[in-house]
């Protein structure tokens, strides 16, 4: 195995010099059992490249960038994932129910106040999106405990769903905060600004 990794490092260096796709070359040299062998979290220090990192850190860095070593989480880790899945799905259901009630409440406001209340529908759309991404992330976490040999892939799927969730939450948060800030500034300084503008207009008239 050590000889294979050294050979892979030499081929990678040659690929960098020749501008060749080193991912295909190195992957073809590394045995399939090295690339796909599941490992428990407790074994990562022994079989996940710890010795290689101490002896050849640069080569270890290149290999890490090209090959994702698979391993299995231990039972204690899986219990944490299962608990997290339950909580995430409860939150997802809460967002979904709140989005539905918000739709009916918005329809009520539109009927009583007018069409100006229609932007409230955007809150329901946001909450429905939150529910979807949280549910999908929970499903990916659940797959970690139900599958063998693909824990890292499922974990990265869960992280991708969470990335989409945080991205979606960021935009309405910025918009709503900006609106609240404008309203607060208008409340604090609105009358002063009006008096200042009025004085300017009177001065121009004179």
Characterization of the model:
The chain has 206 residues and is mainly alpha-helical.
What does the overall shape look like? elongated
Distance between the termini: 91 Å
Q: Tell me about the largest β-sheet.
A: none
Q: What is the helix content? A: over 70%
The computed structural class is: mainly alpha
Please give the radius of gyration in angstroms. 28 Å
User: What share of residues are in beta strands?
Assistant: under 5%
Number of helices: 9
Mean pLDDT across all residues, rounded?
Answer: 74
Please trace the helix and strand order, writing H or E for each element: HHHHHHHHH
Care to count the β-strands?
0
Give unreliable regions as ranges: 16-27, 29-49
Chart the SSEs and their pairings.
Blueprint: H1 2-18, H2 22-29, H3 32-36, H4 44-47, H5 50-55, H6 57-66, H7 75-112, H8 121-146, H9 151-205
Helix pairs in contact: 1-2, 7-8, 8-9
Summed up, what is this model?
Helices cover 82% and strands 0% of the residues. The chain is an all-alpha fold.
Question: Which labels suit this protein?
Answer:
elongated; 206 residues
């Amino acid at each position: 195995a050590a000889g294979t990794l050294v050979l892979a490092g030499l081929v990678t260096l040659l690929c960098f010099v020749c501008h060749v796709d080193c991912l295909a070359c190195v992957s073809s040299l590394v045995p399939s059992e090295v690339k796909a062998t599941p490992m428990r979290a407790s074994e990562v220090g022994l079989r996940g490249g710890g010795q290689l990192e101490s002896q050849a850190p640069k080569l270890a860095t290149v290999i890490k960038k090209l090959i994702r070593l698979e391993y299995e989480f231990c039972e204690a880790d899986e219990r944490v994932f299962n608990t997290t899945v339950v909580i995430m799905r409860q939150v997802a259901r809460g967002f979904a129910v709140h989005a539905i009630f918000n739709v009916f409440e918005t329809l009520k406001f539109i009927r009583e106040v007018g069409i100006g209340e229609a932007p409230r529908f955007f809150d329901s759309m946001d909450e429905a999106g939150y529910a979807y991404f949280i549910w999908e992330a929970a499903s990916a976490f659940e797959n970690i405990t139900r599958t063998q040999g693909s824990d890292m892939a499922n974990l990265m799927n869960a992280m991708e769903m969470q990335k989409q969730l945080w991205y979606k939450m960021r935009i309405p948060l910025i918009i709503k905060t900006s609106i609240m800030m404008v309203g607060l500034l208008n409340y604090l300084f609105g009358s002063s600004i009006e008096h200042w503008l009025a004085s300017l207009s009177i001065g121009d008239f004179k």
